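Researcher: Predict the fold of Tetraacyldisaccharide 4'-kinase.
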Amino acid sequence: MDRFALEVLSGTRRGPVAALLRAGLSLAEPLYSLGVRVRNAGYDRGWKSIERAPIPVISVGNVTTGGTGKTPTVAWLVQWLKEQGARPGILSRGYRSLDGEENDEKRLLDALCPGVPHLQNPDRVTSARRAVTDEDCTSLVLDDGFQHRRLGRDLDIVLIDCLNPWGYGHLLPRGLLREPRSSLNRAGVILLTRAGHCDATRREQIREEIARHTAAPALATTFEPTGFVNAVGDRLPADGLMDRRVAAFCGIGNPAGFRRTLTGMGLPVGEERLRVFPDHYHYNGRDLALLGQWGEELQADLLVTTRKDLVKLSDARIGRCPVWSVDIELRFLDDPAPLEQALLQTLGRKCPA
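Model: Structure tokens for Tetraacyldisaccharide 4'-kinase follow.
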């Protein structure tokens, strides 16, 4: 979603055109809400069938559109499952594939979770069967699966971004909420992501709102930068680009979160030095040429992007500018014991013989 659309939804874009757009979107919101509620009622009351896998299924999802940090969370979860002796597989929809076979998220998760089967298919029930029969998986991680209810899950992990927890307070298309907040009653564990970027009072307010809908534990987390990597695998430490003139670009769901990450690393990037593309953007030769020209105009020493964007680049330079991406990992600000206990219970309830 581009900057103009976000400014309209958030209310920061003023003027008659923005007001008219918000009014039109508000008229469509009740129709979307009705569709979501009817669909959920179908699953809740058994009118729609839920297919169960013979092995544990753990979903990582959210209630808003945009980036809440699902990819680093899935990577953490896969590693945790491997440490327990499980053979996890990842199931995802495969939105906006790059070559007809895989998208940027799969390429990134393949790099973060080498050797772990990752099946992409809008029909995740079929993918689950394949993961069991063809890949010999003993557990499944459903990436972005909170709304995909046809495949039953044994644990729902829901991510809520502390910087915009409720999607401007409205359901799609007027806001960013994919479901009403009451849907949190399906969550087993909630992770408050980017909690390090808001104060304790704000986190408590979010927790109080969550508690209105579910008794699930809500754990504060952050995404910690661990260093930089480029397209050919070279690495730098987290402080390796200090005192350099940096420009940045990204095509992700939460560019503001990326900008905050860079600022926290001592690489402040003003609006004029951050070029934002739509989520899952496919860069072509013209895009790269313009990025290189833009970097030269800014007299940037280098360009910085996200790992999700880096997997779509084959060269370590754009024009004369070296390109580095930020490596991030999930870190817990609260004790992760409630999540680990829920995961152990999930594995124990349904383990293959």
